[in-house]
Amino acid sequence: MERQYESSDRAGITPAPKLGEADPTPSSAADAMDEWPATGQNRDVRRRILWAIVIVGAVLYVPLAIWGLTTWQPVDVAAVVWVAGLVPTMVGISIFIMVKRPDNPIGELAVWATLAIFLIPTLPEIPTTIIYDESGAQGWMWAGMWLAMTAGTAGFVLMMAIVIALPNGKLRHRRERTFMRASSIVVLLPTVSLLANEFVYTHSQSFIGVGEIASPLFIDALAPAGPVLIALLSLAYALFIWAVWLQVMRYRRSTERERRQIRWVLFGGVSAIGLGVFPSVLEIVGLIGPVVHGSLASLIIIPAFLLFMGSVVIAVLEPAWADVDIVIRKSFVYGVLSSLILLVYVGAASALGVAAGARLEVEVAIVLTVVVALLFQPARNRLQTVADRWVFGVRPTKYEAVAEFGETLEQSSDPTELIPQLVDTVRRALGLTWVSAELDDGSRSTTGDRHGEDPVLTVPIRAGEEDFGSIECGPKSEGSLDEDERQLVRTLAGQVGLAVMNARLAGRIVTAAESERRRIERNIHDGAQQELVALVARLGMARSAASEGRLSAEEIDDLQSEASQILKDLRELAQGIHPSVLSDGGILEAVEERCSRLPLKVTVDAPQELSAIRYDDDIEGAAYFFVTEALTNVLKHSDAKRVTVSLRPENGHLRLSVVDDGHGFDALNTPLNGLAGLSDRVQALGGVLAITSRPSGGTRVDATLPVDR
User: Fold this and answer.
1) pTM of the model as a whole
2) N or C, fewer C-beta in 10 Å, the chain?
3) How many beta carbons lie within 10 A of that of residue 503, not counting itself?
């Protein structure tokens, strides 16, 4: 949250923040983390120093590691995995974070932390363990042990700093700076411990096989403080609880994106702690002894560290596939279900084996147990499959995806409802990380987290030659899209295109019908209604004249002529709505009657048998108004002398055409707004409308209507 201090700034004074708010200025070295610049000279200097330390450390580490791995006898598996695997892996992961996110201080913190915890302590530990085993204690060994302890403690503090500074590497609040100051004191404890303890203190997992090494800095007067300092070093790990609490407080004030990143670190941190205490739990319940506990702890700490650093990588890099809530929830549920299935399987086989062993010979009981285990294996596999589908869901096949989306189309043709269903179906069917669809009217739906990625596939939402939008697909969680999967996206996009076209077509038809209703209302109001009002007024005047004996025969003839004209106008208006000749005589007779009343030469070309054929009312109406609208356009725009109207039934279709010899027009570059309603009427019946014209070459308008006799 940004705050401005206008009056205080003018005076050169920065006001103190309120409790719990971010301190606007750093006040100590611990606060410097909050001011680490994303760019600039300071960062470049730090990077050069850090890279120099990494290179020097690697040059020293590689020969020492080879020396230790080829010299240690007997071979300690945990030490081999630590030296050959964990140390380079952890340092490599932290460098990877720093390189991939150079503007995020978390990368630098991770490199410093892994160097301090893993690489630097191992440098003195390898020669110390080898030389101590061959020659006993040496005078320099205390310094190596002190360096390892001090570096490890500093690395632990830096790891906690990573926890509280995620996701952006900044310390936002005063309480976080207080934590850093308190943690910095812990780094001094190994040095002070040399003064108060007769022997150098190290962690139980370090310098295995090395006996007690005397501290040359020991002061007898400080001996009573020795145990206290060692206890403080052990209790320093409790600071991790403080770090977690601070991150929880930060989580409450974070954005949704930051919360998603923080949840990853909390998930990895808690899981790592669970692994770390697992050997202690086993020892407490009596399942293992101290020796096994030590070996098991040395091995388990390796995946615990990897798990934590892996969660930091995901939190900082934010890969598209990482949906922490789903991963945590489904991993837990799936693990529980798998464990229960395995317990049932082992329990059933073991119970039958024990029962058989009580009554049969040992060899027969063993064979019977193996047979029972094999018989139960198909049932176990089936239960495992059920658990997998229950937790992670069933990915529909391509046919199921098309069928499922077809059912959606049957239930709703509203594009605003279809687009979300489209992206959801495509993502589930193909296992994509994200899918987004957008129509040309601005409506948009996205499923999954895109993170600014470019699509791997873009398919237009199209019907015929008209584009209505597009659907964009992100990468698959595993593998890449093959041609069948791309075709599935095109098929579903085509279905949506048809639905969008039909929806808009229906909307335009409704609009056209409303416009026609208003036109008829206006024509009646402005024409016949006004004439009838005038006729009523004149009849009133004639009645007055007749009562006075002044009504002549000429006036009566005028009234009769006026009434006849009004009747004629009403008939023409009714003809425009739906001519009676179309209902009575069919499409051919109605077209011929219409053409006979035009002031130019019109030829009607149609087979004679068409006069005996009747079609559905909507087909005949569409055909009639296609002809009348086309003839109206000829009269208005073409300056034609001759027109040919053709009507032919062919192969379940009625083919219509109107051809004139007028001046024509450029059909590709001329707006055809006047034919939009006619095109909608034809397309609504599943027909096709085509226009062919060129300047000085006349015009041809064709329509094909599917007919059902």
Assistant:
1) 0.46
2) N
3) 17
